[in-house]
Amino acid sequence: MASIELKDIVKIYKDRKRGTELLSIDNVSFSVDSNEFLCLLGPSGCGKSTLLNMIAGFESATSGTVSVGGKPVLGPGADRGMVFQQATLMPWLPVWENIAFSLKLAGKGAEERRAAAQPFIDMVKLTGFENHYPAELSGGMAQRVGIARALLLNFSVILMDEPFAALDAQTKLEMQEELVAIWQRHQGTVVFVTHSVDEALVLGSQIAVMTHRPGRIRELIKLDLPRPRDSTSAEFNEYKRHILALIREESALARADAATV
Amino acid sequence: MNWLASLREQRDRLWVPVLLIVAWEIFSRSGWLPPSLLPAPSTVCRTWADWVFSIDESSQANAGRWIHDALASSVRVFVGYAIAVVSGVLLGVAIGWWRWVEKTIEPTIQMLRPVPPVSWIPLAIIWFGIANKPAIFLVFLGAFFPVLMNAIHGVKTVDRNLIRAAAMMGGREAQILRYVVLPAALPSIFAGLRIAIGSAWMLTVTAEMVAVKSGLGYVLWDSYYFLRYDLVIAAMISIGLLGFLTDWLIKLLMSRILHWQHGQTVQGRNH
């Protein structure tokens, strides 16, 4: 099981049109221990997806280091599974081939891939849909395939970029429950990006609340709540009140900032 | 009476061509034009039958030679087309994928592309002589550019997120090209293949009129010199049929390979 560590991360974008530099992430350091479920919570544009992409290896920091399992991240790799906001499945491959795509890249034969995919297909409750093509799936089902694909690739580190944002409310609740159930059963380190306070509270073992741009970690909250989470309980709502207060404070700061610029 | 039922079903598609042929027959027999200038469909059919089966020598020296002529043209189309498809797809993928290939090769290709393939005929003849080669060269030129342009377009419009997903799963560049970029570009590549087969037939026939002494295009042009417009029309229809047949074969292949598109695009609706 691997832990994730981010140290002194700074990200500066060059705005070519205005000829200015934009400080997107300002000196972020945090670490996620093995088997923790960290929710990165913040407003849009705060750099939470950028941080996730850095852990995935799709983006590099202007300065600072990212390491997973003690090894520095230099690029995307099969030691970290990512679930994207859109399912991004290969439309020409049936469900089972999509889930086992990483094994194809590893040079494994069709029989082995088929066998390896089955437990993950069952896990995300897509039994019977093995041979369906992505175009024949609903949004929620497609996202399940995306999750199964990441799980098969690597159980120990799963990165999720608002994977349920495009789903309807009911499907979203179902998927959240299932994700937690899978995580509880199989463990693994999860970093989950979201802008929904409720989602973070339902899913996370920790929540990192980020500030508006430039992104910093405002507060790292360890959630001491029993599972399954009860969104009507007093403790749940106490956390929620606290986080909402932080967010309100942040957006007030953002407005003040915008007024002075 | 199954075929009658299906014929009834096809009635909507058939009545316009049937009406046209009947009108043409009546017009040709009416004497408004000398029958040699616009031969009646019945005459064309008889000549064509003789061209194919050598029945009554009405196609003179061509009697029974149809399959030979059709094969000669088809071989030229096939060889030129095959070379164009292989080179067009490979080069197109390379240009679409690697920026440096695009920078170094694309300007040259874009300068050659507007030159009509037909205008290469003089050079083709002095380079390759009078035989199969100039025709194959012209077919290649006609088919290459549509294949190339569509392959480039297909690669350039691949969803970046699919490439990211493959990179996330540990895909190396060569694997991403083979397992992601190529399949994702296939719908566009097939669109190019279908345009290209049309150009291929067009250029075979053109080459046969000018630079080759066999094939359907040669028969067509030769019959024109001998005022045999019935043979000219029979050759035109033969070329049309073969073009239709090859396009149908490509469509068949396409629906096999791109079966995953069914239900996803408008095209999949009709299958």
From TrEMBL, chain A:
Keywords: Aminopeptidase, ATP-binding, Cell membrane, Hydrolase, Membrane, Nucleotide-binding, Protease, Transport. Residues 4-237 form the ABC transporter domain. It comes from the Bacteria. GO terms for molecular function: aminopeptidase activity; ATP binding; ATP hydrolysis activity. It holds the Pfam family ABC_tran. InterPro entries: AAA+_ATPase (IPR003593), ABC_transporter-like_ATP-bd (IPR003439), ABC_transporter-like_CS (IPR017871), ABC_transporter_ATP-bind (IPR050166), P-loop_NTPase (IPR027417). The keyword Glycoprotein does not apply. The keyword Hydrolase applies. Belongs to the ABC transporter superfamily. This is ABC transporter ATP-binding protein. It comes from Candidatus Dactylopiibacterium carminicum. The lineage of its organism: Bacteria, Pseudomonadati, Pseudomonadota, Betaproteobacteria, Rhodocyclales.
From TrEMBL, chain B:
Its main location: membrane. SUPFAM superfamilies: MetI-like. The keyword Membrane applies. PROSITE patterns: ABC_TM1. GO terms for biological process: alkanesulfonate transmembrane transport. It is a multi-pass membrane protein. The chain crosses the membrane at residues 14-32, 78-100, 112-130, 136-155, 176-197, 231-250. Residues 70-250 form the ABC transmembrane type-1 domain. Keywords: Cell membrane, Membrane, Transmembrane, Transmembrane helix, Transport. InterPro entries: MetI-like, MetI-like_sf. It is found in: Cell membrane. GO terms for cellular component: plasma membrane. Pfam families: BPD_transp_1. Belongs to the binding-protein-dependent transport system permease family. PANTHER family: ABC TRANSPORTER PERMEASE PROTEIN MJ0413-RELATED, ALKANE SULFONATE ABC TRANSPORTER-RELATED, MEMBRANE SUBUNIT. This is ABC transporter permease. It comes from Candidatus Dactylopiibacterium carminicum.
